[in-house]
From TrEMBL:
<comment type="similarity">
    <text>Belongs to the CPA3 antiporters (TC 2.A.63) subunit E family.</text>
</comment>
<keyword id="KW-1003">Cell membrane</keyword>
<feature type="transmembrane region" description="Helical">
    <location>
        <begin position="20"/>
        <end position="50"/>
    </location>
</feature>
<dbReference type="Pfam" id="PF01899">
    <property type="entry name" value="MNHE"/>
</dbReference>
<dbReference type="InterPro" id="IPR002758">
    <property type="entry name" value="Cation_antiport_E"/>
</dbReference>
<keyword id="KW-0812">Transmembrane</keyword>
<dbReference type="GO" id="GO:0005886">
    <property type="term" value="C:plasma membrane"/>
</dbReference>
<keyword id="KW-1133">Transmembrane helix</keyword>
<dbReference type="GO" id="GO:0008324">
    <property type="term" value="F:monoatomic cation transmembrane transporter activity"/>
</dbReference>
<protein>
    <submittedName>
        <fullName>Na+/H+ antiporter subunit E</fullName>
    </submittedName>
</protein>
<keyword id="KW-0472">Membrane</keyword>
Length: 206
């Protein structure tokens, strides 16, 4: 049986039109161009299809389900965080003496799922003042570049913020078993003695 190059994907399946992934890539293309002209839309669809043909992604097995209440909470909290962080960044920019107090903080995620890890990383990066600079798959880990680390418990605050995002993502898209597993892992983290003794968890100033 013929296969598609190194991936071993059957040619018929490889050239199959995938509406969801193609539409997603086309939307990104339109956003990048900042135009909804017919040429941009058609070229985005074509580009999305060709990317799926020549750079096929591995299948993602999602075991969760959409939870409308969780999604509403996720979006509303994101808007709140965006507003709060934007005001804080504006305050830092307008200050006479600029001292960003920036550093790199490591956060170990509690869920073992590619989709949730990507969602958490994207939502954290959307908030001004915090950027994911590295994603580690095994173990599930994020490295965040964060500004305004002035409090004594600044690292713990960043970690709690990340766990909050992860919790809302799981409650918006996860199964009941995944939510229960996250809650159990979160409770276990809360009972660890002196969680910041690991030197890798300390802030690395930049």
């Amino acid at each position: 049986m013929r296969s598609g190059s190194r991936t071993g994907t059957p040619l018929r399946q490889r050239f199959r039109f995938r509406p969801l992934s193609t539409a997603s890539l086309a939307i990104v293309w339109v956003i990048l161009w900042g135009s909804v002209s017919p040429l941009v839309i058609v070229s985005g669809i074509l580009l999305g299809y060709l990317i799926g043909v020549f750079f096929p992604l591995p299948p993602m097995h999602w075991q969760g389900r959409l939870r409308p209440v969780g999604i509403a909470i996720l979006i509303s909290r994101l808007i709140f965080d965006l507003t709060k962080s934007s005001l804080r960044v504006m305050q830092l920019v307008l200050a006479r003496k600029v001292n960003l107090n920036a550093g790199v903080v490591r956060v170990d995620l509690l869920t073992d799922d590619d989709l949730y890890q990507v969602q958490v990383a994207e939502m954290i990066s959307l908030v001004p003042g915090t950027v994911v600079i590295e994603v580690v798959r095994n173990p599930r880990r994020l490295y965040l570049h964060v500004i305004d680390l002035i409090a004594d418990d600044a690292v713990e605050q960043v970690q709690e913020m990340s766990y909050g995002v992860e919790s809302r993502v799981v409650r918006a898209f996860g199964s009941r078993q995944q939510i229960e597993a996250f809650d159990a892992a979160r409770a276990a983290v809360g009972t660890r003695p002196e969680p910041l003794e690991d030197p890798e968890l300390e802030v690395e100033e930049t």
